[in-house]
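[Help] Beginner question about ligand-bound structures

Sorry if this is basic. My supervisor gave me a protein sequence and a SMILES string for magnesium ion and asked me to "get the holo structure". I don't really know what that means in practice or what format the answer should be in. Inputs are pasted below exactly as I got them.
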Amino acid sequence: MKAATAVAKILKKEGVEFLIGYPVNQIIEAAAEEDIRTIIVRQERVGLHMADAVSRISSGQRIGVFAMQHGPGTENAFGGVAQAFGDSVPIVVLPGGYPRKLLNITPNFSALMNFQHVTKWCEQVTLPESVPDAMRRAFTQVKNGRPRPVMVEIPVDVMRAEIPDDFVYTPAPRLRMAPDPQSVTALAAELVAANRLVIYAGQGVHYARAWKQLRELAELLEAPVTTSLQGKSAFPENHPLSLGSGGRSISKQLHHFLNNADLIFGIGCSFTSTNYGVAMPKGKRIAHATLDPLDINKDVVADIALAGDAALTLEALIAEVKDRLKGKPRGRMAAVTKEIATLKQEWLAQWMPRLTQKTSPLSPYRVLWDLMHTVDVANTIITHDAGSPRDQISPFWEPTEPLTYIGWGKTTQLGYGLGLAMGAKLANPEKLCVNFWGDAAIGFTGMDFETAVRERIPILSVLSNNFSMAIELKIMQTATKKYRSTDISGNYADFAKALGGYGERVTEPDDIVPAIRRAVAKTREGVPALLEFITEKAEDFSMFA
Ligand SMILES: Cc1ncc(C[n+]2csc(CCOP(=O)(O)OP(=O)(O)O)c2C)c(N)n1
Ligand SMILES: [Mg+2]
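Answer (accepted):
No worries, everyone starts somewhere. Holo just means with the ligand present. The predicted complex, written as structure tokens, is below.
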């Protein structure tokens, strides 16, 4: 058989249901022949974002795969792979390569050379018969250890070459690593001894599907829980011990509890210093448990560290903590939950005028507040975009079920949210999948709304159109005044209609909820919907100095 056919057969064995791609790449045709649904996007970046969401939303149990052509396709894919690398998402990327006689000769683009720093595994296959081995290596890496993109570059003449039909392929195993029992004992002692413990959960909890264990440990310890943006929805935010998620903007209760903590326990997180993650206050005792030792002592010094899978770590800690408590809770629950509830009430009271504002142009806070109270949150998967929309939504959106919020921002490409919502919908057709973005963000990837229409991926896209890059106003005052450098324009409801979807422009507060209902109904009919809310250039965020 052709080497490209072997790749498709291997994808099938690995359980891949969709091949997202952009021509020309012979794996696309070979995949269709093997009954793997092929989804063709409008540009490579969005296809990678879709593959990314397929992996995220399934805790990496289903691996998103993307294929593109050598040269321009591979060059144009860089952003999508780099975003998945930044946010640690396990995807398989299958670029074509120039034919072997031109491979690695200037100016031909080499995936092998150029993607080294945004993949955890990058291989160029030069012998057709090595294709199955390369695929085995790639899938073993993508399913194990720290989640990150892997890449196999296959030159076009290698794809076309015949290989023996009788190759054997066994799907790669998933291995879990447990932390050192001695460190577990030491950490359990600290967790029980701490007076003001805060648990900080990262996306390692999502990948290990350790949501129940996280909750059990928090309830045993009667300790408040927050998450990174990537970890958002790992702990139900309507739980009395929830402080809401970390990000650039955060809740008052999170700010308060972090600052008054005597021990912060990070589980399945990187503690990376980033604008889009809550910073750990200086001088705190830090316990850090995560899968990849690469993150230990990187940006935050760990007083005590554990390396291992989040589920195995939490289970081991639960056993040790139970041993120590001997069935007797320390009786802190009422005081802790009351302190959280009081602060939450104060914080929401302060924001309520913005969340319920009756003005036109609309308050973006009102839009997202009405959205949250109109859709079925437990059955909705939502993601933000870069810019103000992320910082507006992340503190206020209250996920109750795991993997119902796709948080991101280790790198933060405008336009990422659309592909994420589309990939989430593909993997979870029964859920309402939403992206909340601004008018600068849509400029990057908006054309792929047509992919949603054509490929029958009925997402709900919620656009905050303030005709501006509002988040840049403060730092571009002169350029704005002299040259209108932060202005942008467009009618995106008309744009959505022109692409065959449902579009509606909303300007009045009373129309927000009815418009959301109409749009959700359209998605149920299989039609992607874009609601364009005309919003004010808001510059206020829930931030604390
Ligand atoms: C690819 C890329 N380029 C530049 C940026 C920097 N950036 C972040 S937000 C933003 C403007 C956001 O404007 P918009 O989406 O309209 O949201 P608004 O703040 O107006 O609500 C820019 C330029 C980025 N995140 N990604
Ligand atoms: Mg804007």
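A couple of things worth pointing out: The mean pLDDT is 98. The two ends are 63 Å apart (CA to CA). Feel free to follow up in the thread.
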